[in-house]
Amino acid sequence: MTIAIAYAAPSAKAPLEHTTIERRALRERDVLIEIAYAGICHSDIHTVREEWGQAAFPLVPGHEIAGVVTEVGPDVTKYAVGDRVGVGCFIDSCRKCEQCLAGLEQFCTDGGMTSTYNDKYRDGEVTQGGYSTHIVVDENYVLRIPDGLSLDVAAPLLCAGITIYSPLTHWNAGPGKKVAIVGVGGLGHLGIKIAHAKGAEVTALSQSMRKKEDSLRLGADHYYATGDPETFTKLAGTFDLIVSTVSAVVDLDAYLSLLKPDGVLANVGAPEDSSTLHLFSLVMGRKTLAGSLIGGIKETQEMLDFCAEHGFGADIEVIRADRINEAYDRVVASDVRYRFVIDIASLRD
């Protein structure tokens, strides 16, 4: 058993605080990871503030984890001590259903995936996340971080990166395709980078003109403000694929009007409230309204390798652990460009 230093929420909506947690003794195929960096995802905030339903406390969030292997179980074959590795949004699944066997563990149909925090393994063990010095994970749910990526900029790729990479890949963003990314934040800034690297013509759509310069720097070919009603007139019928990263309710009819016939509006943002649309927005043009949820282990590794090959990670602001609560408030206020990453070494101070 390993005692890990951590930052945990003691109760709903309470500030996170310094604590210790126990990590299980290594099983045959387990890997002990000393965590170097952990990204702050808006999902962490939704969970600890119980905005997505009841949570189990005390709760250590964090599913954007990057670190180094320090010990392995006797039957581990994929990793060795010293390897640079990551852990994303889930750390187990049934391993035998159709979806797991197809490499789509995020859609496991036999009990669902086991989330990295605020969940339980099938044996009842409670999961605690990456705002901690160590984590123990089965080798089959660990990712290898390529040498071309530093651990700090790689951490957010384990959730934000795969969340946006998966729909761009599934709906074939690439040369000859016109792709729009809605929202230039933690997800959207990576969407611009990845779509550009895939060879698509990329348009960034954000509420105001405030992020135009950043978006063009990140790789966008065009930028428009959705707060300007003329944008929807100018861009009507333009895009093959739109990926919306926003977590607020939007006018789906307006965004569907921007698609070409057979175009796809894929949503990776998850607003709390229900959305509505007129079905004519779909039938007139045989358009598709879709959603996407992270990616499986194989695709996540593919994404990490892709980002390393093209020489980019997330745009980050590294913070000490004692600034986590401040960072939460800034994320809610959209005051970050574009992902907070916790320097886990600061937990030991």
TrEMBL record:
It is an enzyme of class 1 (oxidoreductase). InterPro entries: ADH-like_C, ADH-like_N, ADH_Zn_CS, CAD-like, ER, GroES-like_sf, NAD(P)-bd_dom_sf. Coiled coil: none annotated. Residues 14-342 form the Enoyl reductase (ER) domain. Keywords: Metal-binding, Oxidoreductase, Zinc. Its cofactor is Zn(2+). It holds the Pfam family ADH_zinc_N. Its EC number is 1.1.1.2. It comes from the Bacteria. Belongs to the zinc-containing alcohol dehydrogenase family. PANTHER family: ALDEHYDE REDUCTASE. This is alcohol dehydrogenase (NADP(+)). It comes from Actinacidiphila acididurans.
